[in-house]
């Protein structure tokens, strides 16, 4: 089954930005995330369009948060990513005239809709500030992003 870690990766990126006192370059973020700067730039474009981050140019330029973490929820980030499919499971649609397939699809459809609604509600109730608090509590200190892109 194919998985999608885009939401997790994006939250990780946003929390690194939150812990930086100055704008962070795509290169530094890529180092912290163990990926290519192009991947970061692609990902962050949707966040900019959603008003979650902004960029500054020049010698001390880079990416920074555009809103306070308490104002950003997991749901905001999910929508900024284009609201990707939440569940990998789906129902069969090979024979729409089959009564068994209709019954199975109706039951699964209801369950999938309920699960997605519950998950989206939960996303709307979790702020990035709460997530950041959990990270800091687990670490016992506020992480910083080093010049080499690694967290300290």
Automatic annotation (TrEMBL):
Please provide, in alphabetical order, the Gene Ontology terms of the cellular component aspect for this entry: cytosol
InterPro entries the record matches: Tscrpt_reg_Rrf2, WH-like_DNA-bd_sf, WH_DNA-bd_sf
* GO MF term list: DNA-binding transcription factor activity
SUPFAM superfamilies the record matches: Winged helix' DNA-binding domain (SSF46785)
Signal peptide start and end residues: none
Q: What is this protein called?
A: Transcriptional regulator
């Amino acid at each position: 089954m194919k998985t999608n870690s885009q939401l997790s990766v994006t939250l990780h990126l946003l929390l690194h930005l939150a812990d930086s006192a100055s704008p962070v370059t795509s290169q530094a973020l890529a180092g912290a995330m163990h990926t290519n700067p192009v991947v970061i730039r692609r990902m962050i474009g949707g966040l900019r369009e959603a008003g979650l981050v902004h960029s500054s140019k020049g010698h001390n330029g880079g990416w920074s948060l555009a809103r306070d973490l308490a104002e950003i929820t997991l749901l905001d980030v999910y929508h900024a990513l284009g609201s990707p499919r939440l569940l990998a499971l789906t129902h069969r649609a090979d024979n729409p005239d089959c009564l068994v397939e209709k019954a199975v699809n109706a039951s699964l459809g209801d369950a999938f809709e309920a699960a997605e609604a519950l998950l989206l509600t939960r996303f709307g109730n979790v702020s990035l500030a709460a997530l950041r608090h959990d990270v800091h509590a687990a670490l016992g200190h506020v992480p910083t992003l080093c010049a080499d892109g690694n967290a300290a």
